Amino acid sequence: MALRDGFFKKKSGSANKAVDRIKFVLQSDRSGLPPETLERIKNDIISVLSNYVEIDIEELDFNITKAPSEGGALTSALCANIPIKGLKRTTVDDKVHKE
Amino acid sequence: MGEVIVITSGKGGVGKTTTTANVGTGLAKLDKKVVLIDTDIGLRNLDVVMGLENRIVYNLVDVIEGTCKIKQALIKDKRYPNLYLLPAAQTRDKSAVRPEEMKQLCEQLKTEFDYIIIDCPAGIEQGFENAVAGADRALVVTTPEVSAVRDADRIIGLLEAHNMKKMDLIVNRLRIEMVRTGDMMSSDDVVEILAVNLIGIVPDDGSIIVATNNGEPLVGNESKAGQAYMNICRRITGEEVPFLDLNVKKGFFSRLFGRK
Q: With a CB-CB cutoff of 8 Å, which residues 56-95 of chain A face chain B?
């Protein structure tokens, strides 16, 4: 039974959901910023980048994580993984040139 | 000079006291001279988990207030030649001790013992401040549950703010079957979230309950949890010990042939 359960149920489990939920809640715990503020930071970053490149918002990953700094102590860091679909045809540079 | 280790978690009920009892007893079995201190004033329990509840005369608050000498308050565990317990007071509260006093006590005990193991109360208030004040390193205990992991993260942040020199993580009550079926976070998941060095994985094991019923820590016996605790003790002393094969999401063939 255990074998079969393990074989079929692996992906439907709730552990992944737990991981996602903790990661989300720790973002605001660690930064001391309320979730809405984090959401606004994220949207601002997206909007700035969108001036230059086309972003895959579905695949975007935005996290406050802890990583060892050079001294070895853990520090909070904003880690964003933002996939770029392609360059925008009209970049800000072009606009400046035209003007 | 001995080392002061605080066992902490933030959340209650994840196994701090059980861990303290087993780590302390295990280190004594490795021929280290060990004293356990229960800092959960008002809610003492390390004495019953250790099976030493009938031998208490003086307690931590008596020592701090100078009612007795340290040696008078230390209960010698007759089962091990090198193991002592300093119990908490039951009729007082956390404000009976100050962090500075704990620091002094730890400094004194360091000259006499190899390891001073401190059982920290749940929470982040004065009891926590007292417990971590004199500690050189911390063992953070968590279980693979969202509430416990969240609180562990908070505790790790506070320990960093206290400039704790060394922090290690114990993932307690892991249920291997549930990890395999994807319904429990693995120790890898927890380590990734908390970004702290893993020093031990203790499986959920009914023999822990039996051991607590009997007041006899199971560290070092043949049970999975007993082995896991002994491995933690060896790692504390600096030995490199491979992790028990508990947590591995096994491949199809090893699952077919590798299981008993």
A: 65-68, 73-74
